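Changelog-adjacent note: as of this version, every example in the card shows the full chain rather than a window. The one below runs 148 residues end to end.
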Amino acid sequence: MKKFRYPLEPLLKIRKYQEKQEFSIYGKMLAKINVHTQKIIETQQLKTDFTSLERKRMIEGYFNLEDKELAAKYYSNLGKVIDHAEKEISLRKEETEVLRKNAEKARHRRKILEILKEKKHNEYQLELNKLEFKELDEFNQRMRRSES
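Full-length structure tokens:
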């Protein structure tokens, strides 16, 4: 009997490639979101550190109006950086969800072909086993005839 050959193997290879591409695109988008998330975390840490420093300076009795104005502007700018990063994340959420769904669809299409391939391979194995059993049975019958 011939070696197992799945007729849809070229299509399966294409589906695997498409799945890889879709997940790559999705991963890149997640990386972009993670950059913004990391920016938020870092900026919040800067705000916390800056607030602690300002509190310490107030306790020590250091007060300068110009420094307070600069501090207020700096604090405001940190807030703007956080707002901007949060906006970027929210803008990309919908796009990210679409990309995730596309990647999942690509995975599903590949899985379908793999399941079909597995079923065909099982059918092939079953047929191969039947053929082998038939050959063995014929061989046994010939051996019995030759012994008699």
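Structural remarks: Helices lie at 9-59, 65-147.
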